[in-house]
């Protein structure tokens, strides 16, 4: 089959999300070795670390050291770093190797407070400042819409609420790239289909991605629903490790990248992932997450 004729799906691998909730600190050299191996796989983007308070996420306190130790010359993979405030955005913007700066904006007031210690209005203003920083440093903002598929705190939730906030952030700050985040794994086929179809119709000019947290039992249903609704940008983590430690005590887990890539191949989509290189990274992931947990 001529893969040049296949529809390309953009894959973001998320070792940051996979590691951030581990209780045992992963040594810097181990992180660096793992991320260096991931850079060889062919992922479009690597969510490799975060510039946040070490008190909030101790595991990511060495992001700057990891970055300085990476050999980026032979890789086409672009780097993304997560930030939670203006100081973190300025830190990330100071590194030429970083192309995307990600910020978690929640449609849940409770989760925005838990995650970034901020109200929604202040978080929206911060998105504007991050957009300015990105523009000045030739970076691209990637805004994660946390709790996009449901609210576990009893607050109002509906697809219209998600759309309203995307409209605000796009019209006020020209944010053009969003990742719809299933923060606590609450999405299902119906909610994914309805949200993506509505947003694709309303915001056809924007880049919309899927950052699903899922159990081993329902990752496929979520991936198929998003694909059917036109999504071609997916986040994942090898073997489904990780989740959000700020949302709940028990980590839900990420979309397993290797299974997602296998499904995409079966369905006739193209990716930039090299299977042999990914198999090598899978072995490293098993060792890393088996030892540090």
Largest sheet: 8 strands, parallel
At the fourth CATH level, what is the homologous superfamily? Aldolase class I
Oligomer: single chain
- List the secondary-structure elements in sequence, H or E: EHHEHEHEHHEHEHEHEHH
Topology, number of strands:
8
Strand order of the largest sheet: 7-6-5-4-3-2-1-8
Helix content, binned percent: 40-55%
Assign the CATH architecture: Alpha-Beta Barrel
From the spread of the alpha carbons, the general shape counts as: globular
Would you identify the regions where 5 or more consecutive residues have pLDDT less than 50?
Answer: 245-251
CATH class: Alpha Beta
- Any idea of the CATH topology? TIM Barrel
Q: Report, as a whole number of angstroms, the end-to-end distance.
A: 41 Å
Radius of gyration: 18 Å
Q: Assign the structural class, choosing from mainly alpha, mainly beta, alpha/beta, alpha+beta, or little secondary structure.
A: alpha/beta
Strand content: 15-25%
Number of discrete domains = 1
């Amino acid at each position: 089959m001529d893969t040049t004729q296949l529809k390309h799906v953009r894959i973001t691998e998320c070792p940051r999300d996979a590691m951030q909730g581990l209780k045992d600190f992963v040594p810097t050299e181990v992180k660096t070795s793992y991320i260096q191996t991931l850079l060889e796989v062919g992922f479009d983007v690597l969510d490799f670390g975060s510039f946040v308070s070490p008190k909030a996420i101790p595991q990511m306190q060495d992001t700057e050291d990891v970055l300085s130790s990476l050999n980026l010359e032979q890789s086409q993979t672009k780097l993304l770093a997560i930030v939670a405030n203006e100081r973190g955005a300025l830190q990330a913007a100071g590194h030429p190797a970083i192309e995307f700066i990600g910020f978690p904006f929640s449609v849940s007031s409770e989760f925005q407070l838990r995650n970034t210690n901020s109200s929604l209005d202040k978080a929206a203003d911060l998105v504007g400042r991050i957009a300015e920083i990105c523009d000045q440093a030739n970076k691209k903002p990637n805004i994660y819409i946390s709790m996009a598929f449901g609210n576990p705190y009893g607050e109002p939730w509906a697809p219209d609420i998600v759309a309203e906030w995307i409209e605000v952030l796009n019209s006020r700050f020209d944010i053009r790239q969003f990742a719809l985040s299933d923060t606590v794994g609450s999405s299902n086929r119906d909610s994914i289909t309805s949200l993506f179809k509505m947003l694709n119709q309303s915001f056809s000019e924007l880049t919309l991605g899927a950052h699903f947290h899922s159990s081993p039992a329902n990752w496929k249903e979520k991936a198929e629903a998003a694909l059917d609704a036109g999504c071609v940008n997916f986040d994942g983590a090898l073997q489904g490790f990780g989740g959000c430690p700020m949302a709940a005590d028990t980590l839900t887990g990420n979309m397993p990248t290797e299974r997602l890539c296998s499904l995409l191949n079966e369905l006739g989509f193209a990716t930039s992932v090299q299977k042999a290189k990914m198999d090598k990274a899978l072995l490293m992931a098993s060792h890393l997450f088996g030892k540090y947990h």
